[in-house]
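Dig into my protein:

:::
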Amino acid sequence: GVAWQAQAMTIDSLHTSRLSSQTTDHERRMEITSFTVWDMSDPTDGSTQIDADEWVAGGDLLRVGGAVRFLDQSSHPLPGEVLIELVNITANATVDSNGAYSIDVIAPQTNYYDGFTIAAHLFGPYDSTEPGLASLTFNIDATKPGFQANAPLGERILPSSQQLFNVTITDGADSDGLDLGSLRLKWWVEALHDDGDGIPQIEEYGQRPLLREGESDYFHAQFDDTYNSHGQQVSLFIEGFDKTGNAVLSGPGLEADLVHYISLVPSPTEVISV
C-alpha cells in the first residue's frame, strides 16, 4: 500500500515532484518458507516428522507447521495479517508473533496406498510460495489388524500351569505389516489378579509377549491359571499395532476381551449321607 513519489531536478535546482497514481503491492506479497508434517500419535517409527512416501495410520493426529515471510524480506506478517489454508484437509490458521504457523488435523480414515498429499497456500492474491515447497505426499493405512482366537476355546476350561493361548493376527496383503514387538497377551486370572469384586479391570491384567510361529500369522503365549478354583473366571485380550500405528481392537473386561471362560476344576464325588 505504499504510494511512491517521483522528483525531477535540473542542474540549476529547479525541480518538480509528483505522487504516483497507483500503489505498489510488492511488500505485501508473502511466501511459505518452510513446511513440515509431524505424526503426533503413538507409536511413531523413529522421528515424529513424516517423510515423503512414509506410512501413517488412519485417524492419527497430524501437525502441519512452518513459517511465513514477506517476499525477499527478512520480516514476517503479524498474527491476523495472513491465513494459511491446507489443501485436501479442511483447516487453516494464522501466524504467531514470530511468523510461524501450526495446524493440527486428523489423518483420513481411508486407505491411501498410492499416496495422500497435504499442501498449504496463503489465502488471497499475494501468495508467492515456491511451487512444490508447501506440499508433502505420504501413504495412509487405515485398516486395523484382523484377528481370531484359536485357543483356548470353550466356556469351561481345565486349569493348567502352561495354558496355551493361540491367535491368528493379520494385517492384510496391502498393508505395511505388523509391529511384532508391540504384540502381547493381556491375561487376568481371578484367583491371581482380582481385587475381590470379580470384575477384570485394565490395571489388574498381567502380560506376556506374543511369539510368532515362523513366518505365519499364528502367535502364541502361555499363562498359568491353576490357582483358580471351580467357577472362577479367566479373561484374555491382545494389545499391539501394525507398523503404521493402527491398534488391534480388543480390550479389558468381559464385554470387550477376546476370550473369557470359567475354570472347570473337577473333584471326586463324596457321599455325605445315606
About this structure: The two ends are 110 Å apart (CA to CA). Residues 15 and 256 are 89 Å apart (CA to CA). The mean pLDDT is 90.
